[in-house]
Design a protein that fits this description.
Blueprint: H1 3-15, H2 22-26, E1 31-35, H3 43-49, E2 54-57, H4 63-66, H5 76-87, E3 91-99, H6 105-108, H7 112-129, E4 136-141, H8 158-162, H9 166-177, E5 182-187, H10 191-203, E6 210-213, E7 216-218, H11 225-237, E8 241-250, H12 257-275, E9 280-285, H13 310-322, H14 333-338, E10 340-343, E11 351-354
Parallel strand pairs: 1-2, 1-9, 2-3, 3-4, 4-5, 5-6, 6-8, 7-8, 8-9
Antiparallel strand pairs: 10-11
Helix pairs in contact: 1-3, 7-9, 11-12, 12-13
Length: 369
């Protein structure tokens, strides 16, 4: 038996400790995860991924994943993500059409009108390919300067220098190509400044439907439930949806019960704020298992072997409460979730469980925002 098969059994056994899965507890609430097609042959990975009802591709649907060579469109990887979501009964979210980071050299070296034309062509081709399949796209990702003082300025990058009206160009192009798709602006720490930014973009006639709040936070620095509700309300006042699009929790260094309890609290308060905000329409985690994350440590709902952690069960309990599902998750799940599972692919296919084992460093992690 392959190690992935053993892991799949381990993950399934751990998941079975809950009387309902995350997606069952969520019902019609969109609870999503960022997936990566290079893990699709791992049974444990797919088992954990299937606990969600919404998927976004980490990298496969970005410009670099679709048009590595100028004018040559290859939808193989993005299609693989979309098709896997359909296979697992999940909805699929598009991310992202325009971003200054992690781009092929040909795109970075374009100037002026040539860059404008390339952006228009890319948006047009991608949205046409997925028209009627993907109903929500991040159109522009992280265009603002990294500040959160209530004001805003455009970041100093090659796109903003060459195409200073990138917001107008990208969003208006997207709206012309697909009048039905929801168009989102996606950003992270500078969320209060995004409110001011969106107010001005709307005044300029930029057709924006919503904001993706990436919500990459630290165990020692995060927004309170009250602040999150307040901020989401400010977007509601602008007529905008908001989605938590890339949540993870940095700063867990030991994997102790205390850290996992705090992590669960942070995740649960964030989801609670979303559920309590009429304009919050989805809640997505940026990665499946801890070693799939772009940051080291223990940032996600599943451990390195795709066994669920306390945060996973905390979200289930909150969703069960909101959706009037009365059965309780068994108390034993907390101990099971904190135990790491080490699998040895040997003749005997031994599976050892150790409460002291911690996750390996993510040596090949890459920023996937």
């Amino acid at each position: 038996m392959k190690a992935s098969s053993v892991l799949g059994l381990v993950a399934s056994a751990s998941l079975a400790l809950a009387d309902v899965s995350l997606r069952e507890a969520a019902k019609d609430i969109l609870i999503g995860v960022a997936a990566n097609s290079n893990r699709f042959n791992d049974e444990a990975y797919i088992e954990a991924t299937s606990q969600f009802n919404y998927m976004v591709a980490e990298n496969g649907c970005k410009l670099s994943g679709i048009q590595a060579v100028q004018g040559v469109y290859d939808f193989t990887d993005c299609d693989a993500h979309y098709n896997k979501a359909v296979e697992l009964g999940m909805k699929f979210r598009g991310h992202c059409l325009v971003w200054h980071n992690y781009q092929p050299y040909w795109f970075q070296n374009l100037k002026g009108d040539d860059l404008r034309k390339a952006i228009v062509e890319h948006i047009t081709t991608v949205l046409t390919h997925y028209k009627g399949k993907i109903d929500t796209w991040d159109v522009v990702n992280e265009a603002m300067e990294d500040a959160d003082n209530g004001g805003w300025s455009m970041a100093d990058n090659f796109i903003n220098r060459e195409v200073p009206d990138i917001m107008e160009l990208a969003f208006k192009t997207a709206r012309e190509v697909d009048p039905e798709v929801k168009l989102f602006y996606n950003d992270f720490k500078r969320i209060r400044s995004v409110v001011t930014f969106m107010k001005e973009m709307i005044a300029r006639g930029v057709p924006i439907d919503g904001v993706g709040w990436q919500y990459h936070v630290n165990i020692g620095h995060y927004y309170s439930y009250e602040d999150m509700v307040e901020i989401m309300g400010q977007f509601a006042d602008l007529g905008l949806e908001i989605q938590i699009t890339e949540m993870d929790v940095d700063g867990l260094t030991t994997g102790s019960e205390e850290e996992f309890a705090k992590e669960a609290e942070i995740y649960t308060d964030a989801l609670r704020a979303c559920l309590d905000s009429s304009n919050c329409t989805a809640f997505l985690i940026w990665g499946v298992g801890d070693t799939d994350s772009w940051i080291n440590g223990y940032p996600l709902l599943f451990d390195k072997n795709y066994a669920p952690k306390p945060a996973y069960y905390s979200l289930i309990n909150l969703l069960k409460e909101r959706n009037n599902i009365t059965d309780e998750v068994e108390e034993t799940v907390t101990d099971a979730a904190t135990n790491a599972v080490d699998v040895t692919d040997s003749e005997n296919d031994e599976v050892e469980v150790s409460a002291d084992e911690v996750a390996d460093d993510n040596e090949d992690s890459e920023s996937s925002n």
